[in-house]
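hey so i finally got around to running the thing on that chain from the lab meeting. sorry it took forever, my laptop kept dying and i had to restart like 3 times. anyway pasting the input first so we r on the same page abt which one it is
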Amino acid sequence: MAKPKRPTKEQVIAARAQSGLSAAKAAEVICVTGRQWQKYEAGQARMHPILWRWFCLQFDLVEERV
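ok and heres what got predicted. didnt touch it at all, straight out
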């Protein structure tokens, strides 16, 4: 089985837009700071695959395999 990869900043931005949440509320969903979420969206940090999967599951988003 292939190792899950971290989402791109574009995927993080699109997932948040689809969920209809602010960056602060999206950060709360995966228990990170608002600043950390901003880093994911800016491409300064990459979200862990487990956090990505959790976020996608919470909002019935199709988790893209990256």
